[in-house]
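Archive transcription. Copying these from loose printouts into the bound notebook so they stop getting lost. Printout 1 of 2:
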Amino acid sequence: MNYEDLYQKLQQDEKDVKDQLALLQKLFKAVSRETENGDMKSLTRDLSAMAEAAACISASVNGMKDAAGMFDTKEYFESGQFAEQMLAACVENQVDARGESPVYEMFPYRVRLDQENQEVWLDRKKVQCMRPRYLVQMIKSGQEKLNKASFHALNFVNELSDAYDLAIIKLKKRPESDIYLTSLYKLLAPMSRFRKDYDQHSFAFDLARLYISDVEITKNGKRFQFGPSRNNSKAIRILDKDGQEQFLATIRFFE
C-alpha cells in the first residue's frame, strides 16, 4: 500500500472536476444571459450541457470518495508501510532521520507515529497528514527556513544571559544556578504572538548553532555551561558539529 498510488488517482479525478466546474461556470453565464434575453433555443441546449457537466462532476467526486474509502489507514500504519515510505522520502529529500518506530528525530523536529489512532505528531502538535512524502517535504521546508535565518552567536548568548539574569530574580534562584532552557525561552518569547515568529524549533536551532560556535564569553565577561536533566521533558535535542545528538536541559552563567 502506498499513498502515492492513491494520490495519482485522486489527482486525475480532481482535474476532471476542475475542468467540468470551469465548463459549468461558463455555461451558467450563458444560461443567465439566455434567460434574460429569451433565447429559448440556446437556453435548452446549454441547460442540457450543464446537466451533463454536473453528472460528470458527480461521477468524479464519487470516484474520489470510493478510492479514499478503500484506503485502509489502519493497515497502512500498523504494517509499517507509512514509516518505511517516510524514511525513503527522507533519503530522497536529504533529511537526516534517526530513531525507530514510533519515534523519529529530524532535527529540530520530533516525529511520533500513533499507530493505534493512525495519527502523526510533530513534536506536541498533531498533523493531519497521511502522505509521508508531504510530511517530509514540510519538515524539509522548515529546516531550510531555519537555515536561512540570520544568526549571530554573540548576540544570542547575550540575550540568553539577560534572560538568565531575569530568571534568577523571578524564580528566586541563587546566582550561577542551573536554569532550564525552556524557562529562558518563555522569557525570550513571553507572548503567544511572539512565539509564532520564534517557536521552540527556532530556539533549539539557535542553541545548536551556539553550541557549535566558538563563542565562550558574553559581552559582560561571563562564561556559560549547558547541563543535562533527569527530567527528559525539559531536555532539548540538538545535533553537534559531528551530527551527533546532544540533549541540553539547563544553562548557567558564571564569572
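Printout 2 of 2:
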Amino acid sequence: MSSPNPFSLIGKPIADKYGRFKGRIIALEFDHGGNVKNIIYENGGVILFKPLDSVVVKDGGVIIYSKEMIGAQKLFERLSFLKLQVDALGKLRELSGVNNVYNELYENVSKEYENIIREFNQIKKGLEKRKEAIHKRKNRLESLHYWLGVAREANAIDNKVYLDSYETIDREIVKLNNELEEVEYAIFTLDSKLNEIEELLKKFSDVEGENIYLEEGGGGSDVEA
C-alpha cells in the first residue's frame, strides 16, 4: 500500500476509471503479515471486495483498474527506465569505447530486457483476454438495443422507457469502447518501446562484436575467404 496510513482510505470514494462501481470504502482486509489484501466498499447497499493489485490511490480517492492495465503500466515504467539505461550505454560507448565496464553494463541491460520480454508476453496474453471479454460484453449490450426495439414495436414499453434504457446501454457501450482503446494502446506502446530498445541493443551488440573481432586480429586483408 503506497499510503503510509492505509486506514486513511476508509471513507474515501471509490470508482473505476470510467465512473462505474461508485461507492465508499468501508473497511480493509489484511493478511497474516499485516499487509492490505483487499479493499472493501459499499455500492448501493451491496458490500464488495476488490484486491489491492486492482486499485490505485489517486486524488484523495481510489480508482479501480483492471489488474492487466496496472501490470501494463508498471511494465511501461520499467521499459522507460531501461530505455534511459540503454541511451546512457550508447553515450558511454561513444566516450570510452568497448571495454570491460561497457561489456558488463551491456550484459546487465540485456538480461533486464530479456526479463521484461518474458513478463510482456504474460501481460500481453492478459490484455488480449481483456480485449476479448470487452468485445463479448459490447456485443451482448448491442444486441439489447434490438430487443428494446422489439419491445417498443410490440407496445410493451412506452417511448420514454425505451429512450432511458437505450441511453443507459449506450453509455456503457461508450465506456467499453474507451476501455478497449486503452487496452489496444497499452499493447501498442509496450510493443513499440520493446522494439525500440531491441534495435538499439542489436546496434550496440554489432559494434561490440566488431571491436572484439578486431582485438582478436580479425578483419585484416590477409585473411583468406
